[in-house]
Amino acid sequence: MPATIIDGKAIAAALRADIAAEAATLAFKPGLAVILVGDDPASHVYVRNKITATEGAGLKSIEHRLPGNTTPEQIAALIDTLNTDASVHGILLQLPLPAHIDADPLIQRIAPHKDVDGLTFVNAGKLVAGEKSGMVPCTPQGSLRLIKTFKQDLTGLNAVVIGRSLLFGKPMAQLLLAENCTVTTAHSKTKDLPEVCRRADILVAAVGRAEMVKADWVKPGAMVIDVGINRMDDGKLKGDVDYAGVSAVASAITPVPGGVGPMTIACLLANTLKAAKAGA
Q1: Candidates 3.40.50.720, 3.40.50.170, 3.30.1490.20, 3.10.290.10; correct CATH number of 137-261?
Q2: How far apart are the C-alpha atoms of 38 and 72, rounded to whole Å?
Q3: DSSP string of 250-275?
Q4: Which one of the listed residues 114, 115, 117, 174 is annotated catalytic?
């Protein structure tokens, strides 16, 4: 039987509708400030989509578009201003930044309670500690929401996350651990990666290599979450999973596009609403 397709577009739309309904009950509009530096085309498209989704959910979008020659000191000063602005509940520094700017100290400068990307050390620590008041990175948060639309109780399942980045792999592993999974974090140095993957009831791929995960890597009946977005020479997008092959083996799978991607922006809005309610 072919795998159930986990429809990220529909699930994200439902989440955005819930956010809009809850935001409408507040006496103020939650504000999301986005800082975009330079002329990276993909970033401009992504930010435009974020702004559209933000306003569509009844939240306030605040844009700061800065030229590519902006200095780190100028960005830091803007972040300081936004940290103290009561009308701003979430701050997003769009990555990547121009090559001359080190993003890490600027990310850590964002006030943790406004860090809607969940990348400050404070929020990373809260996630590890199981502290629910922290901000969880949007893509792993969205991935978990997709998993739980297919299966609510994950207790005792074996989960393998391919990837160990601070942005996705590490927080994804922590979220699955909190769901009582037995979690393996795999990466480029993992020995016999296909065999490790074949033990997974939940397989999450976030490696940035098109169609790397083949059908014979997947345990029959496993749930597969494909976080990869790889643009091919013909302009088409492909994930890290061989969708055609794996969908014949898995019990459920996310498509690319239309799977994890839409959830990232929806969870950004959820984090902004959470920050606004905590500060009200």
Answers
A1: 3.40.50.720
A2: 13
A3: -SEE--SSSSHHHHHHHHHHHHHHHH
A4: 117
The model carries a pTM of 0.95
Q: Is 50 a catalytic residue?
A: yes
CATH 3.40.50.10860 residue spans of the chain? 28-111
CA distance 123 to 115: 8
Query: DSSP assignment, residue 113?
Result: G
Positive or negative: CA dihedral 41, 164, 131, 129: negative
Query: Which of these, 65, 15, 46, 8, lies nearest to 273 by C-alpha position?
Result: 15
Q: pLDDT-derived band of residue 40, with 50, 70 and 90 as boundaries?
A: confident
Catalytic residue among 60, 94, 126, 274: 94
**pLDDT (tens digit per residue) in 133-170:** 999 999 999 999 999 999 999 999 999 999 999 999 99
* Topology adopted by domain 28-111: Rossmann fold (3.40.50)
Instruction: Assess whether 151 carries a catalytic annotation.
Output: no
Give the pLDDT band of residue 280 (cuts 50, 70, 90): low
Cβ count within 10 A of residue 209: 14
For the chain, residues classed under CATH 3.40.50.720 are: 137-261
240 is catalytic: no
